[in-house]
Amino acid sequence: MASRRPLRQAEVLRTVETKMILERRGLLKLASTALAAPAVMSHAALGADPVKVVGIHDTSGGLDIYGQPMVACLDYAVAELNEAGGLLGRPVQLINYDPQSNIQLYTQFATQAATRDRAAVVHAGITSASREAIRPVLRRYNTLYFYNTQYEGGVCDRNSFCTGSTPAQNVNKLVPYVLSNWGKRIYVVAADYNYGQITSKWIAKYAREGGGEAVAVDFFPLDVTDFGAAIKKIQAAKPDAVVSALVGGNHVGFYRQWAAAGLKGSVPVASTTLGGGNESLLLTPEEGNGIVSAFSYFQEVDTPANTAFLARFRAKLGARTPYLGAELAMRTYTGFQLWAEGVRRAGAIDRMKVIEALESGITHEGPAGRTVLDPKTHHATLDVHLARVENRGFRVLQTFPQQPPSDTASVCDLAANPGSNQQHVVDVRT
Fold first, then answer.
1. I need a labelling partner for 391 at 20 to 30 A (CA). Which of 190, 323, 363, 413 fits?
2. Is residue 33 helix, strand or coil?
3. Which domain holds residue 258?
4. Where does the UniProt annotation place the signal sequence (predicted)?
């Protein structure tokens, strides 16, 4: 990550309410009559101490393209619940922190959520690096944690629930599409941290299994903006396709520079990440059209449940409703719903009672389809969609119902080993 000036203590410790974050960033102006007022009214009507929920998502810094829609969906989910009467007769109070894409602040705010705020649950993190900064802190303080982001798999921790898709669910659909439609020789570009490093191995594995090969893999720090040298290397390798596992706002530059080099028409591109941060909105049709991604949700998924949700969401937020793109924002909404159902089933907000309830086979039917929590891994069985960028949005090409988290299941069994507390790196060499 790029270096930043030292933060003043006041900056480090501040709590930023969702409305203030989103107004400052210009993404979403939440008028008091839209979200804040109903929540306040519900608190007064319920007349009980609030259940505190903490969100830690980047609304500034290099990861804000992911964080802003996630915050919007979490805020909406809390307001929706409060308008329906709260949880166990109590209002839910959402406290949002902006870690500014700074690992030290993830740790700081996770500690604050557990010790000062005494949160019943924390929904937090975007990159795997941020998750691994947050997860041990919340486990140490016995604070329940939901990580609602597509990632590389392998986390095995009874205190944590991971609701996003993993490589056995998304890469397993993306790579065969590339091999079948574009060719067998793949060039991989990936983020230089655990997500990119591990996901690139899954890409190579699925390429081998499909009779193809990863001819090369290049890694890039999150703050890289100039991909000129890499593009020349790709040209020299003459692959049939490029598969990207790049992360962050700067990786938009890769797709722009790829198109500017005149390669878009001759070497197609697939991505395990494009769409999660609404990158398609930042690319012109000439730059973005034709890029293929695989996620457990796209805003364009045409189902009655998704259509109904989007109508409610737009009615609440009006003209400044954010585009939800692919997976991350919707998984945040879904993760909150799963936690709330766990509380209802437990009849309490006590951490272990809620964990036991969540391990009883909780299912959420919503805009992302059916999501089923797997008791042994604390991951989700979910629908996966292949989609292609078209005119700054996505067109869904194919849907694969109810894909299990088989990668994590191969290394994690919390029923047999409830004390497990690590991220396994699944052996993908064979």
1. 190
2. helix
3. 171-271
4. none
Kindly state whether residue 16 falls inside one of the protein's structural domains.
yes
Structure tokens, 164? 């996003």
- pLDDT tens per residue, range 397-420: 999 999 999 999 999 999 999 999
Does the pLDDT of residue 40 top 60, yes or no? no
Q: Is residue 147 within 8 Å of 131, Cβ to Cβ?
A: yes
Closest C-alpha to 417, from 373, 374, 377, 362: 377
Reported as type and span, the H/E element at residue 363 is strand 363-366
Residues 175-207: tens digit of each pLDDT: 999 999 999 999 999 999 889 999 999 999 999
Residues 145 and 19 in one domain: yes
Number of domains in the chain: 2
**Judgement on whether residues 54 and 148 belong to the same structural domain of the protein:** yes
What mean pLDDT do residues 205-223 have?
Answer: 95
Give the DSSP letter of residue 36.
I
pLDDT tops 90 at residue 131: yes
Q: Tell me how far apart the alpha carbons of residues 106 and 404 are, in angstroms, rounded to a whole number.
A: 29
Alpha-carbon distance of 157 to 412, in angstroms, equals 9
pLDDT of residue 250: 75
50 dihedral zone (left: phi>0; alpha: psi -120 to 50; beta): beta
Residue 289 lies in a domain: no
* Separation CA 86–CA 344 (nearest Å): 11
The position carrying tokens 């049709």 is: 285
Six-digit token pair at 334? 């879904």
Report whether 420 contacts 407 (CB < 8 A): no
Residue linked to tokens 């049939």: 240
- 180 and 159 within one domain: no
DSSP state of 246: -
Contact 121, 23 (CB under 8 A): no
Note whether 190 and 144 are same-domain residues.
no
User: Which amino acid is located at 50 in the chain?
Assistant: P
Give the whole-angstrom CA distance, residue 160 versus residue 248: 24
Pick 28 or 240 by higher pLDDT. Answer: 240
Residue 245 has phi, psi (to 5 degrees) of -125, 40
Report helix, strand or coil for 79. Answer: helix
- Does 260 score more than 70 pLDDT? yes
Handedness of CA 386, 125, 132, 145 (dihedral sign): negative
Clarify whether residues 146 and 17 are in a common domain. yes
Do 181 and 228 share a domain, yes or no?
A: yes
428 Cα distance to chain centroid: 23
326 DSSP 8-state letter: B
State the pLDDT at residue 46.
52
